[in-house]
Design brief:
Rossmann fold, S-adenosyl-L-methionine-dependent methyltransferases, alpha/beta, 7 helices, about 30% strand, seven-stranded mixed sheet, 12 strands
């Protein structure tokens, strides 16, 4: 069995497996950007196939730059979703020599910062590239959800889908590496066209809301929103006009933080883990 990442190595297959025809993730990001008055220059970290970056660029009038580490994804983005500037770069040490009004980090991309040093380096890079008052917007799995909740763990869970006449089948197992504070995944792929099976290993940092708030505050950010619902991956999903709410105990976590202007010290956040009462 070979190793690799079938979906990121084949971006068209990725988009087939995880369709988003209504660009829900990009529309949620745009709604958040508008709600907090962000300027037009946006950096999409972990841009993947580029479909969200391109929507923000063309439909929302943003000037978008996208970075990712997967060259196959970036090549697909430049061809299938042109418009933004795409660069191969690591979220922990990128230097684009440019300033942005907002950083967007969707689909748990932030959780590829597996260690405290990784997360500190990522926030340092965001701070270096954001203008005063710039926003950091992230959507991710919520580490607090896994405290005593095992419904997503174990396996393997099997799923199949067809693409270009071939049926692809995945067997996925999730488990928690408690010492490293990681949600680990092993996914074995097979296909009915005779291609060799492939096994993929990946992991995400399990960050708790207060832990995340601490890292952001220490890095000089002001946390504006930290909440469960609604979002592009919640059930029910976000819809136009929805407002943030929730107790940060469900599977998804949504973050909005701001880099204060040096002449304007941070205000006390009006939100406490999604509570919008004074």
């Amino acid at each position: 069995m070979s190793t690799g990442n079938l979906l990121t190595d084949h971006p068209e297959l990725y988009e087939e497996r995880f369709p988003d025809p209504d660009r829900l993730a990009a529309r949620w990001a745009e709604d958040t950007l508008r709600r907090h008055g962000a300027g037009p220059r946006v950096l999409d970290i972990g841009c993947g196939t580029g479909r969200d970056a391109a929507w923000l660029h063309h439909h929302a009038g943003r000037r978008v730059t996208g970075i990712d580490t997967a060259e196959a994804m970036l090549a697909h983005a430049r061809c299938a979703h042109p418009g933004p500037d795409y660069h191969r770069a690591d979220m922990r040490d990128f230097d684009l020599k440019a300033a942005f009004d907002a950083v967007v980090c969707l689909d748990s991309a932030l959780l590829y910062c597996h260690t405290n040093d990784d997360l500190t380096a990522f926030l340092d890079r965001c701070r270096a590239h954001l203008t005063p008052g710039g926003l950091l917007i992230a959507e991710m799995r919520n580490g607090a959800f896994f405290l005593g909740n095992t419904e997503l763990l174990g396996g393997p869970r099997t799923a199949s889908f067809g693409w270009r006449g071939t049926t692809h089948t995945s067997h996925t197992t999730l488990w928690i590496d408690h010492g490293a504070q990681l949600l680990r995944r092993r996914r074995a792929w097979s296909a009915d066209d005779g291609t060799p099976p492939q096994e993929q290993h990946s992991a995400w940092r399990l960050l708790f809301p207060q832990e995340l708030r601490y890292f952001l505050t220490t890095a000089g950010f002001e946390v504006l929103d930290l909440y469960d619902h609604p979002g592009p991956r919640t059930e029910p999903p976000w819809r136009e006009g929805d407002s943030p709410h929730g107790t940060t105990s469900s599977d998804r976590l949504h973050l909005v933080a701001r880099l204060p202007h040096p002449n304007h010290p941070p205000l006390n956040s009006q939100h406490s883990d999604g509570d919008t009462t004074p």
